[in-house]
Amino acid sequence: MSLVLDPAAQDLLFREARTANTFTDEPVTDEQVQAIYDLVKFGPTAFNQSPLRVVLVRSAEGRERLVQHMAEGNRPKTATAPLVAILAADNEFHEELPALLPHFPQAKDLFFTERPARESAAGLNAALQAAYFIIGVRAAGLAAGPMTGYDAAGIQKEFLDADHTPLMVVNIGKPGEDAWFPRSPRLSFDEVVTTV
Question: In what helix (H) or strand (E) does residue 98 lie, and over which residues does it extend?
Answer without folding.
Answer: helix 97-100
